Amino acid sequence: MKKTAILLLSCPDRNGLVSRISNFIFERGGNIMNLDEHVDSDEKIFFIRVEWDMNNFSIPASDLDEAFAPLGKEFNASWRIEFTDKKLRVALFTSKYDHCIQEILWRQKLEEFPIEIPLIISNHPDLQSLADQYNIPYHIFPVMNDSKKIQEERELSLLKKHKIDTVVLARYMQVLSPDFLAGFGDRIINIHHSFLPAFIGGNPYKQAYKRGVKLIGATSHYVTEELDEGPIINQDIIRISHKDTTRDLIRKGRDLERLVLARALHLHSEHRILVHGKKTIVFD
Amino acid sequence: MKKTAILLLSCPDRNGLVSRISNFIFERGGNIMNLDEHVDSDEKIFFIRVEWDMNNFSIPASDLDEAFAPLGKEFNASWRIEFTDKKLRVALFTSKYDHCIQEILWRQKLEEFPIEIPLIISNHPDLQSLADQYNIPYHIFPVMNDSKKIQEERELSLLKKHKIDTVVLARYMQVLSPDFLAGFGDRIINIHHSFLPAFIGGNPYKQAYKRGVKLIGATSHYVTEELDEGPIINQDIIRISHKDTTRDLIRKGRDLERLVLARALHLHSEHRILVHGKKTIVFD
Amino acid sequence: MKKTAILLLSCPDRNGLVSRISNFIFERGGNIMNLDEHVDSDEKIFFIRVEWDMNNFSIPASDLDEAFAPLGKEFNASWRIEFTDKKLRVALFTSKYDHCIQEILWRQKLEEFPIEIPLIISNHPDLQSLADQYNIPYHIFPVMNDSKKIQEERELSLLKKHKIDTVVLARYMQVLSPDFLAGFGDRIINIHHSFLPAFIGGNPYKQAYKRGVKLIGATSHYVTEELDEGPIINQDIIRISHKDTTRDLIRKGRDLERLVLARALHLHSEHRILVHGKKTIVFD
Amino acid sequence: MKKTAILLLSCPDRNGLVSRISNFIFERGGNIMNLDEHVDSDEKIFFIRVEWDMNNFSIPASDLDEAFAPLGKEFNASWRIEFTDKKLRVALFTSKYDHCIQEILWRQKLEEFPIEIPLIISNHPDLQSLADQYNIPYHIFPVMNDSKKIQEERELSLLKKHKIDTVVLARYMQVLSPDFLAGFGDRIINIHHSFLPAFIGGNPYKQAYKRGVKLIGATSHYVTEELDEGPIINQDIIRISHKDTTRDLIRKGRDLERLVLARALHLHSEHRILVHGKKTIVFD
């Protein structure tokens, strides 16, 4: 596998952005392998993802941030550069349902994601043996009303110790506190078992059953302080009918949840997502 | 085309319902062509749609209601019997957008629906020429704040005069009043341009754009007093991305709206829908 | 879980079939829980699946075949009666790819299928540890050109010994011989990684890539002597683009294969499928 | 609407292509509005679509081909430059079915496509009145076995006279001869009513019904000499069941055909398609 660099950048739109950025790469011996850009014509904002081969690049990876900084400043841009030889470090949070976490672990074994999974965190002991099968340490932090604050601090410290980049909530049945979000940042991916913004909150399948919808969905999104209101990464639906009981919705929805969450993690791990306000730009 | 009868019935579940009903038909010389049933096991309610050939049936259509009444009473059932040689009389309500009404008129010409369309009602003159192409009378009732009540009364009287069975709101941009609903009844089909219950109310595409969803939808439902809360008949979605502007959503959504509304009318016109509370049983 | 009986029957269409069959059940104290029927109006053939509660039924399960036989004979029908308290005994055949078999084992653990899996048969040792995790005996029969006949005989004898009802080919990379098919019968479900009849035979993803299709599919079907020509149970597709390499097709196709195969097994295990000629009637 | 230029280019892959091309635009005062590229890593071929604002561009449209030619030559590229203020001139070919042509005419009226439709050609008189509604000249060329050659020559001459860029076969039920294809070129879009390569040739719905597939499809493609083998632009499918007769397949398939053809024309008219061998690169 080639070592490549990926620049993700957004800035106010202006003339010559693609040219200036591609020149920056070309002049230093980089061959562009993928370039995708988007202009939000309402807000006049430019978004780009560009990936290039680092093999004959004249600047080492360690100096690249410094080298690009002047251009970033000139463009008044938000930007970051990622390298494909550095795998993302992902922590999985889970509770009792195994389908989402199993899906991710299985795909990880097949090397679908460029990630490492140094640890699993759960508030229940139920999925210990699954973690064992994949040889991943499983940390149990039971969350009671009065222990939430202290447990979240322990979790944060563990994430920091293991240099975790991204948290994936694989049907983790606890709402993370604002303190946790402030401490870890915005790289937390959740799966909600409805097509948001329909059926926010608890028991979406029961809500769907009561409302008599003819399709159910699942939504993966980044977590923000407002419940189920974070930027949406991926959504999908499946058709249901009057024959389906709540139990059937849960069964059919499981298939959606794991596929939608896996696709979101796939896109995230390949650095294909730019967040802008409440929305995502997904360069797939 | 054969003349067939269709019984739609719901009642508390009990032993022998299928047997008793199919015997009723068999003993009178009817051949069952389709039978579909459903039991809501939570609420213990039985639903059935059964269609039989009237050719050698010993009771004429005109006496059938009376003949079935004792059984309906014994089962404490809600029921009705329809005949396929009697086409449903449908009035289309429209405003300025032509896509939904055009879709229905075109399918009607292809004889996809067993319906007649004796008239079109609109609050705008814009679609007069489309109505002319299909030789359907086009009645304009401009609705201002102070004229709504009187216009609805005129509409109701026109519907009554033309013995209209069903009203289809083909992107009719007015909310019908409770008086109108009380006067006409529950056979009004609407198309809402979102996957309900997401984006209830006005400008759903704009709401969808702002929320950053990755799919948009359309929902056809029976109209009730609560806005966009009636029993859902059909829903579908289409995938969108960050590239799509509100204008693109409107364009892509048009395709959904007309297909979803047409499917709903198709199911309704073949007497395949039973409404139970806030939900539909769709025997398709 | 209630004990219920399921009658699957097909016969030349005639008057009174639903009535006679539902009476047979009603008169013996059975409560019909589900009834679905279909008439092929081209060929004038009647198909029915009816399920009833055995709790107060006056005939014991063991005598039911004998009791129904006169009616079956009168109707000149093909029929069988299944009982939901008798789980189907399923053997999985596999080679090296784990995704389909893993999907089935995981769903089986969640009790999605009313089946037992007494054994797994493979021509390779690779998936032994997966079988071990689920505590299912894993039998390896390496197939070389000259050993195929003898190995298939051993497999057949093993299937017979374990009273296997159904074989599921979960990406088993061997073509079963006519002798094997004759010996075991028509209860073998395969998953083919294309939307049949497109891309019959080997390497369908490579064929799809070369043809430049914009969607790829998967098809589950019953196995017959003609390769990939058996009655289709379930199919699904996923959208692809010019960006997708053969490797991407394989990755995306895996998700289809396991879902489509799982759905087919679900339908089969609930006795929802009637085979007629080259086609299936699926009462879902 | 802004006047923009669109460069479509393919060439052997090499370093600096994006940079050189974007510089060419930037240095002449062009602002890139969209850039999408793709590298076929098997064949080492580079594809790009780049669109820029011509408002402050220093070279007039009329001189642009000449100005870009040296770069094209250096890259050994196939390329062309289109301008969005020049609408594509499209001729529709049709026979008796109105659904595809009606769909295109209706969308055209809504200004969904940047095209003009100077004429419709048909081998039957049936759709004259539809053409009249949209005020488009309708030319009838009845095709008999012995008149095909002469009629195609007349058609070609009419297309030439009207400076037609693209022919759309909207369910035109004649196979065009190699002479016609040679005379007009490769800008002919067809709709085939199956998910190719399944059910090539005549009566695909009947073929689908006989095979017992669980989904039917439609495929839009460029026409080549080999029947139904041209580069695929767009495909879609719809789910069917054993309940659907051939007649139902035709009805359901109509919806697919018109949507898939309309999408193909939309992509083509916005110059989003590059053909490479038997495949398309679709920059959507």
Give a nutshell description of this structure.
Four copies of one chain form a homotetramer. Chain A has 284 residues and is α/β, with parallel strands linked by helices.
CATH homologous superfamily heading of the largest domain in chain A: Formyl transferase, N-terminal domain
CATH topology of the largest domain in chain A: Rossmann fold
Give me the secondary-structure category of chain A: alpha/beta
Element order of chain A: H for helix, E for strand: EHEEHEEHEHEHEHEHEEHEE
* Total tally of structural domains of chain A: 2
Strand order of the main beta sheet of chain A, please? 7-6-5-8-9-10-11
Whole-angstrom Rg of chain A: 21 Å
Number of strands of chain A: 13
Per DSSP, what share of the residues of chain A sits in E-state strands of 2 or more residues?
Answer: 25-35%
CATH class categorisation of the largest domain in chain A: Alpha Beta
Average pLDDT of chain A works out at: 96
Question: Helix segment count of chain A?
Answer: 8
Characteristic terms for this protein:
Rossmann fold; Alpha-Beta Plaits; four-stranded antiparallel β-sheet; homotetramer; globular; seven-stranded mixed β-sheet; alpha/beta
What would your notes on this structure say?
The structure is a homotetramer of 284-residue chains. Chain A has 284 residues and is an alpha/beta fold. Chain A has two domains: 4-83, ACT domain (Alpha-Beta Plaits, 2-Layer Sandwich); 88-282, Rossmann fold, CATH 3.40.50.170. Helix content of chain A is 33%, strand content 30%. The first copy, chain A, has helices at residues 17-27, 61-74, 99-109, 128-133, 148-161, 178-184, 204-211, 246-269, and strands at residues 4-12, 31-40, 45-53, 78-83, 88-94, 115-122, 138-140, 166-169, 188-192, 215-222, 232-239, 273-276, 279-282. In chain A, the strands form three sheets. A seven-stranded mixed β-sheet of chain A has the order 7-6-5-8-9-10-11. The first copy, chain A, is globular. The first copy, chain A, starts with a strand and ends with a strand. In chain A, 44% of the residues are buried. Chain A binds chain B through residues 38, 40-42, 195-199, 210-215, 217, 231-237, 241-243, 245, 278-282, and chain B through 38, 40-42, 195-199, 210-215, 217, 231-237, 241-243, 245, 278-282.
